[in-house]
Write a structure and sequence with these properties.
It comes from Leucobacter chromiireducens subsp. chromiireducens. Keywords: Cell membrane, Membrane, Transmembrane, Transmembrane helix, Transport. It is a multi-pass membrane protein. It is found in: Membrane. InterPro entries: Mem_transp_PIN-like. By secondary structure, the protein is mainly α. About 75% of the residues lie in helices and about 0% in strands. The longest helix is centred in the last third of the chain and has 26 residues. It is globular, with a radius of gyration of 19 Å. The model has no long low-confidence stretch (mean pLDDT about 80).
């Protein structure tokens, strides 16, 4: 568990630095959006290309990844249903809430969990690939349609297809499929830019906490609690049930359940802040799940770790 604690401490430390930067006036008001935009349009695409260009696309179809991906879709659908029946949000907020329910932090928290609890970092890479190549483009395409484009969804989808995150993901996947070597002279600056993506997103997230406490009345707490409960409780439970029902080995059941219990990825906040949709709801959900996931992961490791 030491590695997991280190992962959580790392994330919270950078978020705290962002909060202090806003608290002491280093960054004021809407200035944090500059950092968020640089992360979205420059650093994150570089990171995604660097991660995907030498990946193995075939690992997407492993049983564990199919189970966790299906679990994500199920809890996302449950959020949509709850949004329709209970707290009625618009399309953008519903999409982002559903994404919060199933889009896991497979990078800066998933990696230490994979290394120190699952014993192999390779368990997380396939889910990262699925989220980047399948889930993220779908979410961004829907968010594009909410911008009020009068020429219809086709134009909005075309704009989504030109999104730098999607373009970088597709380019990285094509390079991996073809086996095209990338010269170090080209790859080195891309990797350097990519290394700045996660700190930028976390800093921007921390800055957003200044001036407004999390989970304040009137900020959509019902949606936050629903998305958070689905993420840290329902998704691992669904993954465990599906993995068991499909006859996966005890270790595969353990891996699928642990991965499903990871908190909501900060990337979702990056999307919300860039499109200026449901920022408070997403911010509070990321904040809540980041804390709530630790005891849940510890419980799963204790209950299933001996399998």
């Amino acid at each position: 568990m030491l590695g997991v604690l280190q992962g959580f401490a790392l994330i919270l430390g950078v978020i705290g630095a962002g909060y202090l930067a806003a608290r002491f006036g280093v960054v004021r008001g809407e200035e944090r959006r500059v950092l968020n935009n640089v992360a979205f349009f420059v650093a994150t695409p570089a990171l995604l290309f660097a991660v995907l260009h030498d990946s193995d696309p075939g690992i997407i179809f492993s049983p564990v990844i199919l189970i966790t991906s299906l679990s994500a879709l199920i809890v996302a659908a449950l959020f949509v249903l709850a949004s329709r029946l209970r707290f009625r949000r618009d399309l953008a907020a519903t999409t982002l809430g559903a994404t919060c329910s199933g889009y896991v932090n497979s990078n800066n928290l998933g990696l230490p969990v994979a290394v120190y609890i699952l014993g192999d970092a390779a368990y997380v890479a396939p889910l990262l690939l699925v989220q980047l190549v399948i889930f993220a483009p779908a979410v961004l395409a829907i968010l594009e349609t909410t911008r009020g484009n009068q020429r219809g969804a086709l134009v909005a989808l075309g704009r989504a297809a030109s999104n730098p995150i999607i373009l970088a993901s597709v380019a990285g996947l094509i390079v991996a499929l073809v086996g095209l070597p990338i010269p170090e002279l080209v790859l080195a600056p891309i990797e350097m830019l990519g290394g700045a993506a996660i700190p930028m997103v976390l800093l921007s997230f921390g800055m957003s906490l200044r001036g407004q406490r999390a989970l304040q009345p009137g900020t959509g707490r019902a949606a936050v609690f629903t998305a958070s409960g689905l993420k840290v409780l329902a998704m691992p439970a669904v993954a465990w049930l599906l993995a068991t029902a499909c006859g996966l080995s005890a270790h595969e059941v353990f891996v699928a359940t642990i991965i499903a219990a990871l908190p909501t990825a900060q990337n979702v906040y990056n999307y919300a802040a860039t499109y200026r949709r449901a920022e408070t709801m997403v911010r509070d959900t990321v904040f809540l799940t980041t804390f709530a996931a630790l005891p849940v992961i510890a419980f799963i490791a204790w209950a299933l770790g001996g399998s």
